[in-house]
């Protein structure tokens, strides 16, 4: 069942970064090619949270070579303006842009929070049950992690190369010591500051 999405040509959509206190929320829409089944690496595609960073990067490169995909982001400013749920939905819609008008079925991780089209289903724990959604989670995670590492070079004191913008003790202490940056989600820091 996990690999059925490939033969059935299903687009998987997932997001990462909802719970971070800095940086964007990032979504990916991915359509895996049947040729991906020719390599045993396909059996290592799993929910991005269960893979080591090194393994995730390797598998992300493998997925990119064997798929069509789109990335969509909602910035921290958009998150502050329209809230995290609406910003997440917007990032998913943006990631789907290159597939707009296509004939493919779509599976989105999570419960239904918006309407994409009549070919879409929302799947609870979808990143554990469907390879298309798991692949989307891997591509979204590696894309966002890379961005947060770039940001960490501009703002080295927050440890984003390690915590990727999540509210670790190190990150929270840095906010107390150095204040917030233009990358922080002000709406997420209200209770903290």
Work out the radius of gyration.
Answer: 17 Å
Q: Biggest sheet: strands, sense, closure?
A: 5 strands, mixed
Secondary-structure-based class equals: alpha/beta
- Which strand order do you get reading across the main beta sheet? 3-2-1-4-5
Instruction: Give the CA-CA distance, first to last residue.
Output: 46 Å
Total of DSSP H or I helical runs spanning 4+ residues: 9
Helix content: 40-55%
β-strand percent reads: 15-25%
> H/E order of the elements?
HEEHEHHEEHHHHH
CATH topology: Nucleotidyltransferase, domain 5
CATH superfamily: Ribonuclease H-like superfamily/Ribonuclease H
Q: Count up the domains.
A: 1
CATH architecture designation: 2-Layer Sandwich
What's the gist of this structure?
42% of the residues lie in helices and 17% in strands. It is built from 9 helices and 5 strands, in the order αββαβααββααααα.
Attribute tags:
193 residues; alpha/beta; Nucleotidyltransferase, domain 5; five-stranded mixed sheet; 9 helices; globular
Explain this structure:
The chain has 193 residues and is an alpha/beta fold. The protein has one domain (4-145): Ribonuclease H-like superfamily/Ribonuclease H (Nucleotidyltransferase, domain 5). The chain is 42% helix and 17% strand. It is built from 9 helices and 5 strands. The protein has helices at 4-7, 53-65, 76-82, 84-95, 126-129, 131-154, 160-163, 169-178, 186-189, and strands at 10-16, 25-32, 67-74, 105-109, 120-123. A 5-stranded mixed sheet has the order 3-2-1-4-5. Helix 2 crosses helix 6 and helix 3 crosses helix 4. The model has no long low-confidence stretch (mean pLDDT 95).
């Amino acid at each position: 069942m996990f690999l059925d999405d490939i033969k059935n040509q299903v687009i998987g959509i997932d997001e990462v970064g909802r719970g971070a206190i800095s940086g964007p929320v990032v979504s990916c829409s991915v359509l895996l090619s049947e040729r991906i089944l020719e390599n045993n690496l396909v059996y290592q595609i799993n929910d991005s949270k269960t893979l080591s960073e090194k393994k995730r990067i390797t598998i992300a490169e493998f997925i990119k070579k064997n798929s069509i995909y789109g990335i969509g982001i909602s910035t921290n400013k958009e998150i502050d303006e329209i809230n995290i749920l609406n910003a997440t939905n917007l990032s998913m819609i943006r990631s789907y842009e290159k597939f707009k008008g296509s004939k493919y079925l779509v599976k989105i991780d999570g419960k239904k929070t918006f309407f994409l089209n009549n070919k879409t289903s929302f799947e609870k724990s979808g990143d554990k049950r469907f390879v298309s959604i798991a692949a989307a989670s891997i591509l979204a995670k590696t894309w966002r992690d890379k961005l947060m590492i770039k940001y960490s070079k501009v703002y080295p004191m927050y440890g984003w190369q390690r915590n990727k913008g999540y509210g670790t003790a190190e990150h929270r202490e840095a906010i107390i010591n150095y204040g917030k940056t233009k990358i922080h989600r002000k709406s997420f820091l209200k209770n903290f500051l």
